[in-house]
Amino acid sequence: MPRSSGCGGWDFSDDTQCLAGAATIQARIASRVTQKTLAGRLGVAEQQVQRWEATDYSGVSVSRVQEVVDALDVRVTETIDFAPARAAAATKKRSTRETNALKARTGKSRSRT
User: What does pLDDT average to in each consecutive run of 10 residues of the chain (113 residues)?
Assistant: First the structure.
């Protein structure tokens, strides 16, 4: 059942934090741990867990998410790769050149006058 959240429910986007938050909620449910039980394990109010889950843990620190994962006794195995800054800059330059070439072919000017 889709949920209303800051990350579009269960629709996993490219947003890594959103994906991690949704996966954390799914892990809690799969482990048959209630929000109340999880809150007790973490020493926080049940409402705090509800707030975290309402936003798919958006804005929650990595260390706190790790505490949640530890309290659920699950293991995180997702790997995140980041492109080096030079590679990202080269991609942006290439994209700009391709955009300008497309504009030239379609007769659109590069200037905005």
Answer: 45 57 90 96 97 91 90 80 63 66 66 49
